[in-house]
Amino acid sequence: xxxxxxxxxxxxxxxxxxxxxxxxxxxxxxxxxxxxxxxxxxxxxxxxxxxxxxxxxxxxxxxxxxxxxxxxxxxxxxxxxxxxxxxxxxxxxxxxxxxxxxxxxxxxxxxx
Length: 112
Hints:
The protein is an all-alpha fold. It is built from five helices and no strands. The protein has helices at 10-19, 29-44, 47-74, 76-83, 89-111. The longest helix has 28 residues, at 47-74. The radius of gyration is 25 Å and the shape is elongated.
């Protein structure tokens, strides 16, 4: 399986694949497919990805800071109004979910 390159005629590739139909995929089909996907993903990465990632972290930091400032400014009134909606247990559940989600995303990015 050769990696597809831009400029290939899709119809011609499909016609060739239909002419050369096989009952079974090649023995290293999974490895070829994984290599193709990795190569395509790396080809689409550019210098803008790093900028985009940093901008996302900056927006997250601004949102966290805005939340902290709002809680400080409004004080206990905001927390009291949230707690009066019902049992306050859901606030802790949401906070734990957000923290776990961010931690897992961070771990996955580090493993790449």
